[in-house]
Amino acid sequence: MKIINIDSSNSSKVRGIFSVTKKRSLNRKNKILLTQNIKYSDIGWGGIITTQKTQRENAITISQESFEKFGEYDIVDILCGEIVFLWEYENDDNCFFLTDSCSCKCVMCPQPPKAHNKELEIKNLKILELIPNHYKKSICITGGEPTLLQEYYLQFMQKIREKFPHNFLITLSNGRTFNNLVFLNKFAKLKSNSLVAISFASDIDTLHDEIMGAKNSFHQMHNGIYNLAKAGEKIELRIVVSRLNFKRLPTIADFIYRNYPFVFHIAIMGLEYTGYAIDNYEKININPKEYANELQEAIYKLNRYGLNVSIYNIPLCLLNKNIRRFATKSISKWKNDYAKECLKCDVKDKCCGIFTTSNKYPYTNIAPIKVV
Question: pTM surpassing 0.90?
């Protein structure tokens, strides 16, 4: 998430989660006023963010560059020395982070699991409260494994649906909890306009379990997929490509068609080199050029089978030309950037770019594409 560093003494009187606004109104509770010109009447706000030098105790002075990063209805958490953006109103990739806890330990996980922090439950409820009712974009629920919270997850989904009855909801999951029919039936009763995006590592159960770091995860995921399908839920399968599974891509495509022809979407994804992906770097690292042919064959197969397939997180220049049309701008804005070589590229505006979070970026063969 996007973070702006500030002088810790500058924010000593302002703490907490607030909605950002540039509009002066009488409703100032839980709101931060964003202004370059503080007025005498600007009282009662949770705080003020400004470029002005001021003696106001509830004002935070920042640079013009930082000031321009804020938008109307953004939701921020003001801490000692930093402002953390929890929700950016104009972004398409906002999410509720429900828990650090997970039932898997994926070898490429960018967010290594930790014990669940109950404070996240309070924080998420606060964020939900502050999002304006007219918000129309899709809403993502992630973790960790959000479904591990079971009753809280279901209750939170219900609260989202009550406030936003028409927004599309996306849950990122390993699929294992949906193996539990009691949980599945409660989830299905929500009757939400939603999709469950499930991590799918391999068509071979033992390899899937190895990559996911959990025994029996394949069979529980498999049952979960069928349970969701029987309940009429939309399902997306997400395949993160590594050295462990790249050779299986064509057979994974066949397996999905034979076993899950009902899935709504399939995403084949490049690695993000942070978290466990760094710890297991030698084991999983691979340049997309090395699996370009396997990826192309898998994409061709899935497309011929009539399945909806996309490529995430792989720069266009590292893909075979014939499958670039399947690639999307998939990397969240707050951790997205481009290499210096990309400045001369004719298709930069259509490319996902690279992860700024990748501590080791192995792609030394990025090159600009010239359209003739």
Answer: yes
